[in-house]
């Protein structure tokens, strides 16, 4: 095979514009934010350098912080658990339906809707009975009166109600990725397997899974990192309330920076979030590289 | 050969693109700092001259004044007020253009904060009194308005003492759009339906009424507690009573008392008894303030504890004519109903760095002078912070408006809202702590402790 020989200089020219944009718009703000995290600053007046005091406060004294981390991680795990389901669905669609594409497009619809619209939509679904909430209405008409809840205002349930909306919204997204991955596996492989007597689950075990691992990984990383940063849906539906019951890391960051006028403290939470994303990306990549090596 | 040439061209094109990207990067700082002020950027050529020349000689130059405001609802009288006054001023001063940047309250708060961080406050913006505007004043973002207040007798139009809430070191930094009190609006028809003959004068009676209304399937008290200030406003009225008068938060700030004071704990308990009696709508914490108000305005709730600024809006709603208002009752026999939660309004402040400071001051002077007249015309004069000439009754104001105006005459003093008194960080802890009372029963001593430790941490 002929490998294209390109001088390093040319590569640099091609990469530089994007790299510069990236540095300007992403990297420098992150560095600034890390620095701001070391300040006691209301965002307006003179800042005071306090070193790691914000981080000490965050890790040791803030009663809101750790619960929000727990909720965020649970959010991320929940959104990862949905992906095997998407894969199974993609395989079934690919195997039994000729018009799979249409169906996938339909599942994809929620992804293109604005999160604000999704939030408002589900708020009306979750509303209490007295305000005509659809979910409660449905439960009552099924005779399950005792199952009704104030889905978004009972502290124990509220967060799970939000998880569910998020899973619903991104199901189509991950399904599309998995479906495309499955479609790209050449049919000849399956035909050859059938001749050898491997069909159905067995074919999936030895052909589909090994070949889909990289795609699967992309979905996993996207889902995980995406939900670590979850903000908009929570903001629209509950704004972190009632009384912090649905606060995730990013809403705590927002509330501190913009409502409590603790911009420095908010930035230190942002720093934590960046590090968390970084660490988990590395971990997921590491785990999947192992998996890929095992299959290949 | 040909291939090589095209390759070189390609590299050149890319380098050009690269240079452009770099330029964009370098410029981003300048662009960012102009966000509050689009037209100013377009006018940069003339700006330098204008600031040096006296205002009246530059009368033929086009000047644009950005007016950030929080009156987005076209049906509301205040929206009409801002638009009509701006248009009138533009007509009289053809060289001035008033650029209205209209946002809702929450958006405006965040936008202003972001603009303040880059020291680019719009020419005129909106702030809340006392503690909430202090960080901005400390940073020197606002221009003192004392000189301008002296012109055309503007200062004398304000009710005595009102401007103090907007003054720091004897300088006035903002002009309020209103001066309100917290009252209990009630729906006379629903009270009648439930067989309640007279409005409650004690908290115990109020609780009793809540239970009666609840039994009849009527929501007793409307509220939208997703915006947590609404619950806090009501709670603070209870505290005003259990404390036997105003000044509790001031005492805490002066170190004379703590949040673990019996008066505070008693107020938390009283508030919880209201929640436990089912006074508020289901899922109150997921309803925002506007939707909460609509529960009352559409005749589904019997009472609404809110500021008198809603008078005009209630008159314009479907329950108009059926609504009366009364003072918040005494709690456990304590407090004086003639002491109210006071709500000096959101206020207009001028940017100290404004490119057209003189023109902005002139406009605001005109605006503030004419505001009471215009509000009176629009039947929205109840609760404004300036003296109004004219007979409400003769001008066709509703009974409710006259009722509220009567309550104003009884004001013997009171307290400001929590977030106008305490620093923002403590206020946020307070707001979510009160919000929590709506969804679960909490030990009142625990609530007090939470407040105290937040106060100490953010002193």
UniProtKB/TrEMBL annotation, chain A:
Its main location: membrane. The chain crosses the membrane at residues 12-35, 73-92, 104-122, 157-176, 211-231, 263-288. Gene3D superfamilies: MetI-like. GO terms for biological process: transmembrane transport. It is a multi-pass membrane protein. Residues 68-284 form the ABC transmembrane type-1 domain. Signal peptide: none annotated. It comes from the Bacteria. The keyword Hydrolase does not apply. InterPro entries: ABC_transporter_permease, MetI-like, MetI-like_sf. It is found in: Cell membrane. PANTHER family: ABC TRANSPORTER PERMEASE PROTEIN, INNER MEMBRANE ABC TRANSPORTER PERMEASE PROTEIN YCJO. Belongs to the binding-protein-dependent transport system permease family. This is ABC transporter permease. It comes from Paenibacillus donghaensis. The lineage of its organism: Bacteria, Bacillati, Bacillota, Bacilli, Bacillales.
From TrEMBL, chain B:
It comes from the Bacteria. PANTHER family: ARABINOSE-BINDING PROTEIN-RELATED (PTHR43649), BLR3389 PROTEIN (PTHR43649:SF14). PROSITE patterns: PROKAR_LIPOPROTEIN. It comes from Paenibacillus donghaensis. Residues 43-58 have a biased composition (Polar residues). The keyword Lipoprotein does not apply. Keywords: Signal. Residues 1-26 form the signal peptide. This is ABC transporter substrate-binding protein.
